[in-house]
Amino acid sequence: MKRLMLCRGIGTTPLKGGVIPNLFLFFRSGQYVHEEPVILRPHVLQTCQGFRLQTTFHEALVKAADHDQTYLATLKVLLKGDSKVDINFGIEKDLLLYKNRWYIPKDEGLRRTIMEAEHDSKIAGHFGTDKTIDMVRANFYWPKMDEHITEYVRSCDVCQRNKVIRHKKYGLLEPLEVPMRPWTAISMDFIVGLPKSEGYTKIWVIIDRFSKMAHFI
What we know:
Elements: H1 2-5, H2 42-47, H3 55-65, H4 69-80, E1 89-92, E2 95-98, E3 101-103, H5 108-119, H6 129-137, E4 140-141, H7 145-154, H8 157-162, E5 186-191, E6 203-208, E7 214-216
């Protein structure tokens, strides 16, 4: 309102009660061009998508889909028109959509390419976990996607080197109390990666911190 009152045009003073009489009074002749809003019809909106697959990425997606049996089985069921399939699935350009997002096959290289594009690129700017998840989720989907993105961002070398830690500083290490009698305090660990013996490949080791007696389970 203050900005409008400082204008030099004719009729820039609001009426009593703060009501502006007419928008055209705040512009000189020829300064304001009124245009009717353009409203797209539903069938036009469906053809306007905010994301288009690049040619190279599209080829990689098709190639990865050919090697994912689950992907191909779901696509085949949808083409048959089976009503038992999840209603969130769809098809476009012979590729799967999930909630109107591209369903990414089980291909670690392709999924990593997407995460790199949405996190490592200069446009992305190494955003945090939540922002990166939102950016990937806007156009893509695959099972356990949030877990994969969280692990990717957590292990990003650039983020670890340059971003400031915002949580409270860790406290000092405190020594364990010295036990006064056997089996009042124990420690435990697992030995893994052993050859299979009677169906087991791990050993649970329990040690008494006072007597150093050990049990192997």
